[in-house]
Amino acid sequence: MTKNNFLTPESRMARETQRWFDRKFRIAYKRQQIFNEEGASKELVDKVQSIVSMMPEKFQEVLELRFFRGFTNAQTMEQLDYPESSYYRLKNNALVEFAELTKGTELLKVESDETLTIKRAIKFFNNDLERIESVAGTRMGRSTEFDSVKHHSNVNTAEEMATQRLDANNTLDYVQKMIGKLAEQEQGMINMRFMEGATSKEISTNLNCTEDEVHQIMDRALLTFAEITNEKLRLVVEK
């Protein structure tokens, strides 16, 4: 029997609702901030804001800090000046209240295959990005000797090589720009994990959060990155 089987119905509801906030809502919220969209993302954010506004003020405060502004649990506790036990009880109660207010709707439904999308985003950073850097002759802002750049055997002319190098550099610029649109902690985690090769433990120490939070925030960062770059990189896997 797994640990989750010992959760009360309320605790399970809070956990599932937090997962939805950390993933689907944060992605929609960032899309609206970045692209100023008037479609589905704005509709979702407006609907959530409307529901949250009906909740008690303390619930509004914790949801605003934790999920709208993207604070970690530690940062939210510090901002609200709550002891740990009181904070987690308040957050869970707020999440349960939100879930209760959305019963009978499809608001908490997750449509993309998040697990496969995360795996595809990890593959992009671990494998695809390195190949792009190799063609570009740079590593996300750090120059590399052009002579060391590997070229495919089917690239026969200097013009083709120059075109591929330009395309690769444009892609790197785009990736850097999109990473820069993530929340500050999400940016830090992406850079530490994939650019610097830091472990989860090293990241948690550096960012003053637990390893569980590192995994949660990293998943959210990868999903958000996949979503906001999907038109170009095609990382989102639909169900």
UniProtKB/TrEMBL annotation:
GO biological process per UniProt: DNA-templated transcription initiation
Regions that span the bilayer: none
Domain RNA polymerase sigma-70 region: start-end pairs: 179-222
InterPro entries: ArpU-like, RNA_pol_sigma70_r4, RNA_pol_sigma_r3/r4-like, WH-like_DNA-bd_sf
Gene3D superfamilies for this protein: 1.20.140.160, Winged helix-like DNA-binding domain superfamily/Winged helix DNA-binding domain (1.10.10.10)
Molecular function per GO: DNA binding; sigma factor activity
UniProt cross-references to SUPFAM superfamilies, sorted A to Z: Sigma3 and sigma4 domains of RNA polymerase sigma factors (SSF88659)
Keywords: DNA-binding, Sigma factor, Transcription, Transcription regulation
Pfam family, one: Sigma70_r4
Protein name: RNA polymerase sigma-70 region 4 domain-containing protein
Organism in which the protein naturally occurs: Weissella muntiaci
